[in-house]
Specification:
The chain is about 45% helix and about 20% strand. It is built from 15 helices and 13 strands. Strand 5 (about 120-125), helix 5 and strand 6 (about 150) form a beta-alpha-beta unit. It is elongated.
Protein backbone atom coordinates (compact mmCIF):
# COMPACT_ATOMS: atom_id res chain seq x y z
CA UNK A 1 0.00 0.00 0.00
CA UNK A 2 2.80 2.39 0.88
CA UNK A 3 4.47 1.77 -2.47
CA UNK A 4 1.20 2.51 -4.27
CA UNK A 5 0.77 5.81 -2.43
CA UNK A 6 4.31 6.89 -3.29
CA UNK A 7 3.85 6.02 -6.96
CA UNK A 8 0.50 7.76 -7.01
CA UNK A 9 2.09 10.93 -5.71
CA UNK A 10 4.55 11.19 -8.60
CA UNK A 11 4.04 14.15 -10.88
CA UNK A 12 2.85 13.42 -14.37
CA UNK A 13 5.32 13.82 -17.23
CA UNK A 14 4.28 15.65 -20.38
CA UNK A 15 6.34 15.02 -23.51
CA UNK A 16 6.29 17.66 -26.25
CA UNK A 17 7.41 16.68 -29.75
CA UNK A 18 8.33 19.26 -32.43
CA UNK A 19 10.61 19.44 -35.45
CA UNK A 20 12.99 21.96 -33.88
CA UNK A 21 13.05 25.17 -31.87
CA UNK A 22 13.93 27.42 -34.77
CA UNK A 23 12.61 30.94 -35.17
CA UNK A 24 9.10 30.11 -36.43
CA UNK A 25 5.74 31.04 -34.96
CA UNK A 26 4.73 27.65 -33.56
CA UNK A 27 8.21 27.21 -32.11
CA UNK A 28 7.91 30.49 -30.23
CA UNK A 29 4.42 29.55 -29.11
CA UNK A 30 5.65 26.24 -27.68
CA UNK A 31 8.56 27.97 -25.97
CA UNK A 32 6.14 30.40 -24.34
CA UNK A 33 4.02 27.50 -23.08
CA UNK A 34 7.09 25.69 -21.74
CA UNK A 35 8.24 28.80 -19.89
CA UNK A 36 4.89 29.24 -18.20
CA UNK A 37 4.51 25.56 -17.32
CA UNK A 38 8.02 25.58 -15.86
CA UNK A 39 7.11 28.54 -13.67
CA UNK A 40 3.93 26.85 -12.42
CA UNK A 41 5.89 23.64 -11.69
CA UNK A 42 2.86 21.38 -12.20
CA UNK A 43 4.41 18.68 -14.38
CA UNK A 44 7.70 17.10 -15.32
CA UNK A 45 8.41 18.33 -18.83
CA UNK A 46 10.33 16.63 -21.62
CA UNK A 47 10.72 17.98 -25.15
CA UNK A 48 11.85 15.91 -28.13
CA UNK A 49 13.13 17.58 -31.30
CA UNK A 50 13.46 15.90 -34.67
CA UNK A 51 16.50 18.08 -35.36
CA UNK A 52 18.85 19.42 -32.71
CA UNK A 53 18.24 23.04 -33.69
CA UNK A 54 17.49 25.55 -30.92
CA UNK A 55 17.28 29.21 -31.96
CA UNK A 56 16.07 30.47 -28.59
CA UNK A 57 18.95 30.55 -26.12
CA UNK A 58 16.54 31.15 -23.23
CA UNK A 59 15.28 27.59 -23.63
CA UNK A 60 18.40 26.26 -21.91
CA UNK A 61 17.69 28.39 -18.84
CA UNK A 62 14.48 26.41 -18.29
CA UNK A 63 16.38 23.22 -17.39
CA UNK A 64 13.83 21.09 -19.22
CA UNK A 65 14.83 17.58 -20.20
CA UNK A 66 15.22 17.37 -23.95
CA UNK A 67 16.21 14.83 -26.58
CA UNK A 68 16.66 14.93 -30.33
CA UNK A 69 16.45 12.36 -33.09
CA UNK A 70 19.11 13.69 -35.51
CA UNK A 71 21.67 16.48 -35.45
CA UNK A 72 20.76 19.64 -37.31
CA UNK A 73 22.77 18.83 -40.46
CA UNK A 74 22.06 15.09 -40.62
CA UNK A 75 19.70 13.59 -43.17
CA UNK A 76 16.43 12.12 -41.93
CA UNK A 77 15.82 8.41 -42.40
CA UNK A 78 12.24 7.69 -41.25
CA UNK A 79 12.78 4.12 -39.93
CA UNK A 80 15.74 5.28 -37.85
CA UNK A 81 13.80 8.28 -36.53
CA UNK A 82 10.90 6.04 -35.61
CA UNK A 83 13.20 3.64 -33.75
CA UNK A 84 14.91 6.46 -31.84
CA UNK A 85 11.58 7.96 -30.89
CA UNK A 86 10.36 4.55 -29.73
CA UNK A 87 13.40 4.19 -27.45
CA UNK A 88 12.89 7.68 -26.01
CA UNK A 89 9.23 6.94 -25.32
CA UNK A 90 10.06 3.62 -23.66
CA UNK A 91 12.56 5.35 -21.41
CA UNK A 92 10.46 8.44 -20.67
CA UNK A 93 7.02 6.83 -20.25
CA UNK A 94 5.08 10.14 -20.26
CA UNK A 95 1.49 10.53 -19.12
CA UNK A 96 0.69 12.52 -22.25
CA UNK A 97 2.36 13.45 -25.54
CA UNK A 98 1.71 16.79 -27.20
CA UNK A 99 2.86 16.95 -30.84
CA UNK A 100 3.38 20.18 -32.80
CA UNK A 101 3.25 19.30 -36.47
CA UNK A 102 1.92 16.86 -39.06
CA UNK A 103 5.22 14.99 -39.43
CA UNK A 104 5.55 14.76 -35.66
CA UNK A 105 2.01 13.38 -35.36
CA UNK A 106 2.77 10.78 -38.02
CA UNK A 107 5.85 9.52 -36.16
CA UNK A 108 4.28 9.64 -32.71
CA UNK A 109 0.73 8.48 -33.43
CA UNK A 110 1.42 4.76 -33.79
CA UNK A 111 3.85 4.69 -30.86
CA UNK A 112 1.41 6.49 -28.58
CA UNK A 113 -1.39 4.09 -29.52
CA UNK A 114 0.77 1.01 -28.93
CA UNK A 115 1.91 2.35 -25.55
CA UNK A 116 -1.61 3.56 -24.72
CA UNK A 117 -0.45 7.11 -24.08
CA UNK A 118 -2.93 9.91 -24.97
CA UNK A 119 -1.84 12.29 -27.72
CA UNK A 120 -2.82 15.92 -28.21
CA UNK A 121 -2.14 16.96 -31.80
CA UNK A 122 -1.41 20.65 -32.35
CA UNK A 123 -0.56 20.40 -36.06
CA UNK A 124 -3.13 22.92 -37.33
CA UNK A 125 -1.35 26.27 -37.39
CA UNK A 126 -2.49 27.62 -40.75
CA UNK A 127 -5.75 28.02 -42.62
CA UNK A 128 -4.52 26.99 -46.04
CA UNK A 129 -6.83 24.26 -47.38
CA UNK A 130 -5.13 20.88 -47.54
CA UNK A 131 -4.58 19.65 -51.10
CA UNK A 132 -3.11 16.47 -52.48
CA UNK A 133 -4.17 12.92 -51.78
CA UNK A 134 -1.05 12.08 -49.74
CA UNK A 135 -1.41 15.08 -47.41
CA UNK A 136 -5.11 14.42 -46.91
CA UNK A 137 -4.44 10.76 -46.17
CA UNK A 138 -1.70 11.57 -43.65
CA UNK A 139 -3.95 14.08 -41.91
CA UNK A 140 -6.80 11.59 -41.78
CA UNK A 141 -4.53 9.01 -40.15
CA UNK A 142 -3.07 11.61 -37.76
CA UNK A 143 -6.53 12.69 -36.65
CA UNK A 144 -7.60 9.08 -36.19
CA UNK A 145 -4.63 8.40 -33.91
CA UNK A 146 -5.05 11.64 -31.93
CA UNK A 147 -7.09 11.90 -28.75
CA UNK A 148 -7.57 15.64 -29.33
CA UNK A 149 -6.72 17.96 -32.23
CA UNK A 150 -5.89 21.61 -31.60
CA UNK A 151 -5.92 24.58 -33.94
CA UNK A 152 -4.86 28.12 -33.11
CA UNK A 153 -7.73 29.53 -35.19
CA UNK A 154 -11.31 28.78 -36.21
CA UNK A 155 -10.17 29.26 -39.80
CA UNK A 156 -7.71 26.39 -39.34
CA UNK A 157 -10.47 24.06 -38.19
CA UNK A 158 -12.54 24.94 -41.24
CA UNK A 159 -9.60 24.29 -43.56
CA UNK A 160 -8.48 20.96 -42.05
CA UNK A 161 -11.91 19.71 -40.94
CA UNK A 162 -10.84 17.36 -38.10
CA UNK A 163 -13.51 15.35 -36.28
CA UNK A 164 -15.62 17.96 -34.43
CA UNK A 165 -16.11 15.81 -31.32
CA UNK A 166 -12.39 15.82 -30.52
CA UNK A 167 -11.06 19.13 -31.81
CA UNK A 168 -11.04 22.75 -30.74
CA UNK A 169 -9.23 26.09 -30.72
CA UNK A 170 -6.74 27.66 -28.35
CA UNK A 171 -5.76 31.07 -29.66
CA UNK A 172 -2.19 32.26 -29.33
CA UNK A 173 -1.34 34.14 -26.16
CA UNK A 174 0.89 37.17 -25.93
CA UNK A 175 3.36 37.66 -23.10
CA UNK A 176 3.17 41.39 -22.39
CA UNK A 177 6.45 41.31 -20.49
CA UNK A 178 8.24 40.92 -23.82
CA UNK A 179 7.38 44.56 -24.49
CA UNK A 180 8.80 45.90 -21.25
CA UNK A 181 11.69 47.33 -23.24
CA UNK A 182 12.67 50.74 -24.47
CA UNK A 183 11.92 51.79 -28.02
CA UNK A 184 15.18 51.38 -29.90
CA UNK A 185 17.06 53.98 -31.93
CA UNK A 186 16.28 52.20 -35.18
CA UNK A 187 15.81 55.49 -37.04
CA UNK A 188 19.26 56.66 -36.08
CA UNK A 189 20.71 53.24 -36.92
CA UNK A 190 19.37 53.25 -40.48
CA UNK A 191 19.81 57.00 -40.96
CA UNK A 192 16.23 58.18 -41.41
CA UNK A 193 14.77 61.37 -39.87
CA UNK A 194 13.74 61.13 -36.24
CA UNK A 195 10.35 62.71 -36.97
CA UNK A 196 9.58 60.28 -39.82
CA UNK A 197 6.65 57.87 -39.78
CA UNK A 198 7.43 54.16 -40.10
CA UNK A 199 5.34 51.30 -41.45
CA UNK A 200 6.68 47.89 -40.39
CA UNK A 201 6.13 44.35 -41.61
CA UNK A 202 7.63 41.48 -39.62
CA UNK A 203 7.50 38.21 -41.53
CA UNK A 204 9.56 35.59 -43.27
CA UNK A 205 10.50 36.36 -46.87
CA UNK A 206 8.71 33.39 -48.40
CA UNK A 207 6.33 32.98 -51.37
CA UNK A 208 3.26 33.12 -49.14
CA UNK A 209 4.02 36.64 -47.89
CA UNK A 210 3.02 39.36 -50.33
CA UNK A 211 6.05 41.64 -50.37
CA UNK A 212 5.43 42.48 -54.02
CA UNK A 213 2.18 44.25 -53.18
CA UNK A 214 3.83 45.88 -50.18
CA UNK A 215 6.48 47.41 -52.44
CA UNK A 216 3.74 48.70 -54.73
CA UNK A 217 1.96 50.21 -51.72
CA UNK A 218 5.20 51.76 -50.53
CA UNK A 219 5.69 53.41 -53.91
CA UNK A 220 2.17 54.88 -53.86
CA UNK A 221 2.34 56.11 -50.27
CA UNK A 222 5.81 57.60 -50.63
CA UNK A 223 4.63 59.65 -53.62
CA UNK A 224 2.09 61.36 -51.35
CA UNK A 225 3.93 61.60 -48.03
CA UNK A 226 7.53 62.76 -47.88
CA UNK A 227 8.49 61.45 -44.42
CA UNK A 228 7.17 57.86 -44.42
CA UNK A 229 9.48 54.84 -44.43
CA UNK A 230 8.77 51.11 -44.72
CA UNK A 231 10.74 48.70 -42.52
CA UNK A 232 10.81 45.05 -43.58
CA UNK A 233 12.00 42.80 -40.75
CA UNK A 234 12.86 39.18 -41.45
CA UNK A 235 14.79 36.85 -43.71
CA UNK A 236 14.09 34.04 -46.11
CA UNK A 237 14.51 32.84 -49.69
CA UNK A 238 12.54 35.70 -51.24
CA UNK A 239 14.60 38.46 -49.65
CA UNK A 240 17.21 38.86 -52.45
CA UNK A 241 14.46 39.12 -55.07
CA UNK A 242 12.52 41.70 -53.08
CA UNK A 243 15.71 43.70 -52.50
CA UNK A 244 16.41 43.69 -56.24
CA UNK A 245 12.84 44.70 -57.02
CA UNK A 246 13.01 47.60 -54.56
CA UNK A 247 16.23 48.74 -56.23
CA UNK A 248 14.64 48.51 -59.68
CA UNK A 249 11.69 50.58 -58.41
CA UNK A 250 14.18 53.11 -56.98
CA UNK A 251 12.54 53.11 -53.55
CA UNK A 252 15.40 51.73 -51.44
CA UNK A 253 15.77 55.11 -49.75
CA UNK A 254 12.30 54.66 -48.32
CA UNK A 255 12.08 50.87 -48.03
CA UNK A 256 14.60 49.30 -45.65
CA UNK A 257 15.17 45.55 -45.47
CA UNK A 258 16.49 45.03 -41.94
CA UNK A 259 16.99 41.26 -42.02
CA UNK A 260 16.48 39.01 -39.02
CA UNK A 261 16.51 40.99 -35.76
CA UNK A 262 16.54 40.06 -32.09
CA UNK A 263 15.08 43.44 -31.05
CA UNK A 264 11.72 43.11 -32.83
CA UNK A 265 9.76 44.37 -29.81
CA UNK A 266 11.88 47.50 -29.58
CA UNK A 267 11.51 48.14 -33.33
CA UNK A 268 7.72 47.84 -33.06
CA UNK A 269 7.63 50.25 -30.14
CA UNK A 270 9.51 52.69 -32.40
CA UNK A 271 7.06 52.25 -35.30
CA UNK A 272 3.66 53.69 -36.21
CA UNK A 273 1.74 51.15 -38.36
CA UNK A 274 1.96 47.35 -38.57
CA UNK A 275 1.30 45.52 -41.85
CA UNK A 276 0.98 41.84 -42.73
CA UNK A 277 0.15 40.94 -46.32
CA UNK A 278 -0.38 37.34 -47.47
CA UNK A 279 -1.02 35.67 -50.80
CA UNK A 280 -4.26 33.84 -50.06
CA UNK A 281 -3.71 31.12 -52.63
CA UNK A 282 -0.35 30.19 -51.08
CA UNK A 283 -0.61 30.85 -47.38
CA UNK A 284 -3.36 31.40 -44.84
CA UNK A 285 -2.39 32.53 -41.37
CA UNK A 286 -3.81 30.87 -38.33
CA UNK A 287 -3.49 33.48 -35.64
CA UNK A 288 -0.50 35.55 -36.68
CA UNK A 289 2.17 36.21 -34.06
CA UNK A 290 3.20 39.30 -36.00
CA UNK A 291 -0.29 40.81 -35.86
CA UNK A 292 -0.47 40.09 -32.14
CA UNK A 293 2.91 41.74 -31.66
CA UNK A 294 1.81 44.84 -33.58
CA UNK A 295 -1.29 45.16 -31.40
CA UNK A 296 0.64 44.57 -28.18
CA UNK A 297 2.98 47.39 -29.19
CA UNK A 298 -0.05 49.66 -29.65
CA UNK A 299 0.09 49.81 -33.46
CA UNK A 300 -2.93 49.94 -35.76
CA UNK A 301 -2.87 46.97 -38.13
CA UNK A 302 -3.37 46.52 -41.85
CA UNK A 303 -3.72 42.79 -42.60
CA UNK A 304 -4.96 40.61 -45.43
CA UNK A 305 -8.56 39.53 -44.88
CA UNK A 306 -7.71 35.83 -44.78
CA UNK A 307 -7.24 32.94 -42.41
CA UNK A 308 -7.40 33.82 -38.74
CA UNK A 309 -6.74 37.54 -39.20
CA UNK A 310 -10.46 38.43 -38.84
CA UNK A 311 -10.46 36.59 -35.50
CA UNK A 312 -8.07 39.13 -34.04
CA UNK A 313 -8.28 42.31 -36.18
CA UNK A 314 -11.58 44.17 -35.79
CA UNK A 315 -12.00 46.04 -39.09
CA UNK A 316 -12.31 49.77 -38.58
CA UNK A 317 -11.72 49.39 -34.83
CA UNK A 318 -8.20 48.03 -34.31
CA UNK A 319 -7.08 48.31 -37.92
CA UNK A 320 -8.13 47.32 -41.41
CA UNK A 321 -8.67 44.00 -43.17
CA UNK A 322 -7.78 44.29 -46.85
CA UNK A 323 -8.17 42.32 -50.05
CA UNK A 324 -5.05 40.46 -51.09
CA UNK A 325 -3.01 42.05 -53.90
CA UNK A 326 -5.20 45.18 -53.82
CA UNK A 327 -2.49 47.82 -53.68
CA UNK A 328 -4.95 50.68 -54.20
CA UNK A 329 -7.14 49.71 -51.25
CA UNK A 330 -4.16 49.02 -48.99
CA UNK A 331 -2.56 52.34 -49.94
CA UNK A 332 -5.80 54.15 -49.14
CA UNK A 333 -5.90 52.71 -45.63
CA UNK A 334 -2.18 53.30 -45.12
CA UNK A 335 -2.55 56.95 -46.11
CA UNK A 336 -5.58 57.33 -43.86
CA UNK A 337 -3.56 56.11 -40.88
CA UNK A 338 -0.37 57.91 -41.82
CA UNK A 339 -2.12 61.28 -41.95
CA UNK A 340 -4.19 60.91 -38.78
CA UNK A 341 -2.27 60.62 -35.49
CA UNK A 342 -5.45 60.51 -33.42
CA UNK A 343 -6.83 57.61 -35.44
CA UNK A 344 -3.56 55.70 -35.13
CA UNK A 345 -3.55 56.21 -31.37
CA UNK A 346 -7.18 55.19 -30.92
CA UNK A 347 -6.86 52.04 -33.02
CA UNK A 348 -3.56 51.13 -31.39
CA UNK A 349 -4.98 51.53 -27.89
CA UNK A 350 -8.04 49.43 -28.72
CA UNK A 351 -5.84 46.73 -30.25
CA UNK A 352 -3.62 46.55 -27.19
CA UNK A 353 -6.68 46.30 -24.93
CA UNK A 354 -8.00 43.45 -27.10
CA UNK A 355 -4.74 41.52 -26.65
CA UNK A 356 -4.81 42.04 -22.88
CA UNK A 357 -8.45 41.00 -22.54
CA UNK A 358 -8.77 38.20 -25.08
CA UNK A 359 -5.32 36.95 -26.10
CA UNK A 360 -3.36 37.01 -22.86
CA UNK A 361 -0.64 34.52 -22.08
CA UNK A 362 -2.57 33.51 -18.94
CA UNK A 363 -5.61 32.50 -20.98
CA UNK A 364 -3.41 30.62 -23.45
CA UNK A 365 -1.66 28.67 -20.68
CA UNK A 366 -4.78 28.02 -18.60
CA UNK A 367 -6.56 26.56 -21.63
CA UNK A 368 -3.63 24.21 -22.25
CA UNK A 369 -3.50 23.15 -18.60
CA UNK A 370 -7.22 22.37 -18.69
CA UNK A 371 -6.64 20.15 -21.73
CA UNK A 372 -3.59 18.48 -20.18
CA UNK A 373 -5.50 17.69 -17.00
CA UNK A 374 -8.28 16.13 -19.03
CA UNK A 375 -6.07 13.77 -21.05
CA UNK A 376 -2.93 13.08 -18.97
CA UNK A 377 -3.12 9.66 -17.34
Amino acid sequence: MLKQRVEGSKRKKILFFIGNLGSGGKERRLLTLLKELSTKDLYDLHIVLIRDLIHYSEFHALSIEYSYLVKSQESKFPPRLFLKLWKIMKRSRPSLVHVWGSEEAAYMGVIAKIMRIPMINNQITSSTPVTGLLSKTINKINFKLSDYILSNSEAGLRAYNPPPHKSGVIHNGMNLERFNVQACAIKEEISIPEDSLTVVMVARFCPGKDYDTLLEVAGKVCEVIANVYFLLVGDGPERPRIQSKAEAMRITERVKLLGKRKDVEAILLSSDIGVLLNKKELHGEGISNSVMEYMTAGLPVIATNAGGNPEIVDHGVTGYLVNDKDANQISEFALKLATNLVLRKEMGDRGKARIINEFSIDKFVDNHITLIRKYAR
